[in-house]
Design brief:
By secondary structure, the protein is an alpha/beta fold. The protein is built from five helices and twelve strands. It has helices at about 45-60, 65-70, 110-120, 135-140, 195-200, and strands at about 5-10, 15, 35, 45, 60-65, 85-90, 105-110, 125-130, 145-150, 160, 175-180, 185-190. The two termini are about 30 Å apart.
Length: about 200
């Protein structure tokens, strides 16, 4: 089964968007270089960021997002972002009216069921979980293997937190990778596996 990775670009003070769901400068690093990260030609990064990010993107089989992200992106018009094969949407509501049933989007209730579905779809490839409320719930459920952050040198002050509403201590291992790009610091932390009593601190 593929690894479950929680991921997002994040401000130094731990936010993935402001109160109005705007990322502000969090994605500026994706246009700060001269190496195309995908076929669109829009996303251009430094060579260092390309060498770190492209192999990761190529390993992702399925992305798990919350219904809020799905709604504010209009479901990416039924085409998963960044060439990903499937998107699993954690939601209590059915697909929107008129939604194409052939689109590779799966609407699942509850994070445990969503991760199980995502792993089934991804096979031995990575399941990426979007950071935020859903990512925090998946971490709290003990289902995240790795936390990846692209830390951007900005302080947002308030907004949507990377770890959502997580209110318990979770220990991570020392970072596997710490890579400096243009206006971004790429970090990768394995999640420490402890007994439930130890995990809660």
């Amino acid at each position: 089964m593929g690894k479950v990775v929680m991921y997002s670009s994040v401000s130094v003070d731990g936010f993935v968007a402001d109160e109005n769901d705007q990322p502000g400068p969090l994605f500026d690093w994706l246009s700060s270089g001269d190496v195309a990260l995908d076929d669109s030609g829009i996303v251009k990064v430094s060579q260092v960021s390309y060498d770190y990010t492209r192999p990761y993107w190529d390993q992702i089989g399925t992305t798990v997002v919350g219904r809020h992200v799905f709604d504010i992106t209009d479901g990416w018009d039924g085409k998963p972002p960044a060439g990903i094969d499937h998107v699993v949407v954690v939601t209590h509501r059915p697909a929107p009216e008129g939604w194409d049933p052939e689109a590779p989007f799966h609407f699942v209730e509850g994070v445990e069921a969503a991760v199980a579905k995502a792993q089934e779809l991804a096979g031995d490839r990575i399941v990426e979980v979007a950071a935020g409320d859903v990512g925090g719930q998946v971490l709290a459920a003990g289902l995240v293997d790795e936390v990846r952050m692209d830390v951007v040198p900005v302080v947002l002050g308030s907004g949507k937190r990377y770890f959502g509403s997580v209110d318990a201590q979770h220990l991570l291992e020392d970072p596997d990778e710490v890579i400096q790009g243009n206006r971004v610091l790429h970090l990768r932390y394995p999640v420490r596996r402890l007994g439930s009593d130890e995990q809660k601190g």
